[in-house]
Amino acid sequence: MTFLDQLQTAERQNGSLLCVGLDPEPAKFPAAYRGDASKIYDFCAAIVEATADLVSAFKPQIAYFAAHRAEDQLERLMAHMRATAPHVPIILDAKRGDIGSTAEQYAKEAFERYGADAVTLSPFMGWDSVQPYLKYHGKGAFLLCRTSNPGGDDFQNQRLLTVPGQPTLFEHIAALAQGPWNQNGQLGLVVGATYPSEIERVRAVAPTLPLLIPGVGAQGGDAAATVKAGWRHAKDSMNSTTGPVIVNSSRAVLYASSGADFAQAARNEALRTRTLLEEARLLTFGSL
User: Fold this and answer.
1) Among this protein's residues, is 28 annotated catalytic?
2) Tally of domains within the chain
3) What is the domain extent for residue 266?
4) Angle, vertex CA 180, rays to CA 174 and CA 181, nearest 5
5) Catalytic pick from 95, 108, 135, 139?
6) pTM for the full model?
7) What is the pLDDT along the chain (288 residues), one digit of tens a residue?
8) Residue 219 maps to which CATH number?
């Protein structure tokens, strides 16, 4: 089963556009675990178990594990996610971007060591820094396109005067990903929820690509505006799309409670967000 197959299966089975990001910060753990990096696996595994039937994907952020020398815990967590929710794809948030020979090693890390179904990449070193990941049949690669941080304007929103039509850099990346770079149908794009009008511009350029959209929840992105901008129904169908959206929430779910009920509180927040996204999807369908 390819990444896209997994994504569509999870979306249908769990009735969800929600991705839960796993960004473990021991200083924010509930009281029983607080400050203890050896509990990263235990904390994340509890979140996974509490939300596995509510999500279309999980997205562990590798830096939060590596900073605490917890790569072994990430390996255990990846195995646990595959056992607990085998139908839910795992996107390794690594934002790698390097020349071909180094990219080959990063691809091996993501797909062979950790067994991820997809990975996030920085495309700014060009095609040869992306190509090694696409040699893994059925795996997905999400290119940073229009990110949610304010500093994204420094480069992503600049116009390319030498390209016909003078698109912004993020529009040019979207066009490459939709077109010549997407040789095996494995690419997607990362577009921040804090810029819904620009999600819409990306969707216009890349109508069929999956969009990974962080920024809903603690970062202030609007769930309804995000879905309206990115979701496109296929042939007037309420339950299928021409281009999937994967809406990520991390801190709002992970740290919904600092008490012993943290897993239940995470579930409640994930359920609330899933419902908001589903309502927005239905409203979008109704506006056709």
Assistant:
1) no
2) 1
3) 3-286
4) 70
5) 95
6) 0.94
7) 899 999 999 999 999 999 999 999 999 999 999 999 999 999 999 999 999 999 999 999 999 999 999 999 999 999 999 999 999 999 999 999 999 899 999 999 999 999 999 999 999 999 999 999 999 999 999 999 998 888 888 888 889 888 888 999 999 999 999 999 998 999 999 999 888 889 999 999 999 999 999 977 555 567 778 888 887 766 655 566 678 999 999 999 999 999 999 999 999 999 999 999 998 888 876 544
8) 3.20.20.70
